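Question (not urgent): is this output format expected?
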Amino acid sequence: MDAIVKMLEKHQPFFEKISRNIYLQAIKDGFLGCMPIVLTSSIFLLIATLPGVVGITLPQPLIDWCNKLYNFTMGVMGIMVAGTTAKNFTASMNRRMPAGKVLNDGSTMVAAQCSMLLLAVTQFTTKFNGSELSVFDCTSMGTRGLFSAYIAAFITVWVYKFCVSRDLTIKLPKEVPGAIAQNFRDIIPFGGAVIICGIIDVVVRNLMGVPFSELLIKLLSPLFTAAETYPGLILIQAATAFFWFIGVHGPSIVQPGIDPIRLANQAENLQVLLAGGHPAHSLTFNMSLVGEFGGTGATFIVPLLLILFMKSKQLKAVGKASIVPVAFAVNEPLLFGAPMILNPYMLIPFVAAGCVNVSVAKFFIDNVGMNGFSCVVPWATPAPIGIFITTNFQLIALVFVAIIILLDAIIYLPFLKAYDKLLCDQEAERAAELGLESNDAAAIAANASAPAVEQAAASAETTAAAADSKPVADQPEPAADASAKKDVDGLKVLVLCAGAGTSAMLANAIKEGAAQTGENIASSAGAYGQHTAIMDQYDVIVLAPQVRSYYNDMKADTDRLGIKLLAPRGKEYIDLTRDPAGAIKWLRENLD
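Got this back:
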């Protein structure tokens, strides 16, 4: 097992390189930027449908109003994603542009939205009340048009890069105000992007008789069908857990490629449910509630197992500290505290539990009558509650939840017991070396990790950062007396993670520490990829371990803006979230 982990660790830089791919980043961050659409539209959907579950009939005008709000938000998801994807792709491309040449992200955003409409939407005329009207077919404006949205965004930004790099722009005299001059500079690339997508639209419609978005769906439908089989669901879940196990944020790699079909399936499930049928799609957006039950690795039950069945003081402490965060799908305290990442004892259960969960879910949907998920709830919703809501409050869903909790416990318990024995032996050895009674080992476990833990945690925290841009956490710490003199008064700190969950833990600790020490420090939490518009408002940016692989990309931006960038390692980060005063001290020690 150790040999396998060492082999995976050896290839970790390659997997981190995949996670930093600018196309995957743009898709992930673009979709994340539109999550308010998904969540808000689902609220209106629940308002319209939930009362009917308990026998309450709402006035039809209210139901129609809620449905209208849903259609005018979720129904234009594709157009919005085209813009946000282009905006984030532009930010990545600007890092690769020659000095003095910058792409206008506002212009690329609008151009991509126009281009997406050309690729996905059909315009036709119809008669209404005796008048001839021009009508848009809205079918592909929403989730059905997401693939077209991504392609429109990439084509647009590449056209802008081609034109701006070669100065193919309209130049005005220097006396013309900058805002006006920029509008003229954008005319050629804007027109070029729209024309290219317009040509693609004409060619596809004339040759295939369908819009480009429908052609993509037809071409990719065999892959979609395969992804919704038992092997497909297992492969998707295993890949997500595997990447996280080696220290790379798995959802960032796996989910961008399947998000369009997951959302389209979920929307189809909704239509079937509203029509009184059985929603049968299992590959949906909120299937992550099942495969990542309590976080990647399906760790929902693990903290309770640590508390009830483990003898190691270290594991009991980790269980108590992580039980609440894990309930809300923030399982980094467990992943880095136990640790589970790159821990050879945890490889099999960490990958297997989620795979078993999605297989059982598909069986329940296909054979037992449980509804496929039909609406979206926030990712931090406790998984049992989220599953109950998104299956339209079926009692069978509660039975399903109980079964997967039991199965996950059975999968994890033998491996946790084996790891627990190792830690107990090490705690006893260290106590014996110091001439202490075995009961005193608790004090040792509380103040120092076992060697096996240190080795696993260190492996999990490696990054692909170059030596000349090594994160500050890797550099020698200043003397304590020097750090105490550093002024942090008035400091503004932004903590970033993948979904603003883990980052909130440290941001809250910094706020609490500032109150304890009387420091005037403001701290906020955010998601990596949604920080570009606000990062210049902060003095310090902290990367959580799950996004630490983006350090080099982030460093280029923070250096340009004169912002201090910090990237604590996994266990160090988790320790800081539990020690508010220590978080303030850590900030002092790492300021220049």
